[in-house]
Amino acid sequence: MNEVVERVRVATRAAARVSLTPLLVRAAIFLSTLVGLLLAYPAEVLREQPLVVPLVALLPAVGPRRVWPTFAVLVTVGGWLLAIDGYGRPVALWRLLAVASAVYLTHTLCALAAVLPYDAVVDPDLVVRWLLRAVTVLLATAVLGVLLVELAGAGEGRGFQVATLAGLAVAVAVTALLGWLLRRR
Q1: What angle separates helix 20-40 from helix 124-153, to the nearest 10 degrees?
Q2: Which of 29, 54, 132, 185 is a Cys-bridge partner for 61, taking CB atoms 3.0 to 4.6 Å apart?
């Protein structure tokens, strides 16, 4: 009985030390995951299982250092594939960009939350800089994605091959640049 009382006392002390910034980051994780899931899954599936989506969105917010962010991203991608292949939803560029943005925000916010203890006192500039960098990546990716889609449309049948090769070239160039930067240190 004393062990239970001591555990409750320790949990109460830990809860009293929680600071606002880590909680806000975890709330943003929940919201970005929830938005991604709601945009990815068809409405028919969401109506059948209304509690599953918030539960999946809550998991990475509670455990950002564990397997839950990967699980949530895979469930989101699975929902996207289910909507397109299983329910015949047409691929809309805005929805694709929104789901990809939500997945990226979930990923990057989980990386931030993984290094923030619950009782950390964090300068708000750190979170603002982190989010500005994430928004920059999202905007650059959206612009490049739209350009590649337009390039694919201009190819008269070969467009998807051209867009695939261009995307592959960009991925190889970024990988080479990152490798060069790591060796330079």
Answers
A1: 20
A2: 29
